[in-house]
Amino acid sequence: MKEVSRTIIGRNVKAIRLSLGFSLLKFSLATGISKASLVNVESGKNGYNLNLLDNILKFTNFTLTKLANETFKPNKNLREELLEKHKFNKDVQSYFFDQAPEIVYAIKHKLLSSDFFQSPREIREVRAYFESLGWHYKGTSISNALKRLNTQVLITAHPVKKNTFLYKSKQIM
């Protein structure tokens, strides 16, 4: 496999993992690939063969051709699609889909696209929103992630409460 192809495949595998809201560990467990091997795949390094990619292809239902495509982008609802694909596999369902996704996934794929986040919200409100989805995060984790996404999230000081911020989507729906 050429270096360029490994780089493209690695970038696309990482895009899939992130669009699922999986950590490296969670994705490695889901696909049956060691975490170290997954790091090698995502970084485009040599040292893995096509057989290793078979596990990723089986789990995700993508083809090698799609993974090697430079313009590949996972669907926004990939998590839901894979939940449907694995609906009879209780191990996959319970461990990978009943747990809260990574916080960045939760913000990008649920919070930012919701009507809820079109109005300024305190962290306690955002936390309650996620809890309504069955996802539990610490307020500090939410706050830190929102600050890192400052191109998508507007952060302003609360007009009345000291040391409190309000968060809202910069995206216009």
How would you explain this protein's 3D organization?
- With 173 residues, the protein is mainly alpha-helical.
- It contains 10 helices and 2 strands; from the N terminus they run H-H-H-H-H-H-H-H-H-H-E-E.
- It has a two-stranded antiparallel ribbon with strand order 1-2.
- Helix 1 crosses helix 3.
- The longest helix has 18 residues, at 3-20.
- The termini are far apart.
Task: Sum this structure up briefly.
By secondary structure, the protein is mainly α. Helices cover 55% and strands 6% of the residues. The chain contains ten helices and two strands.
Key attributes of the depicted protein:
elongated; 6% strand; 173 residues; 2 strands; two-stranded antiparallel ribbon; mainly alpha
- Give the CA-CA distance, first to last residue: 42 Å
Total count of strands: 2
Strand content: 5-15%
Helix content: 40-55%
- Outline the low-pLDDT stretches: none
Q: Roughly what is the average pLDDT, rounded to an integer?
A: 88
The shape is elongated
Secondary-structure class: mainly alpha
Largest sheet: 2 strands, antiparallel
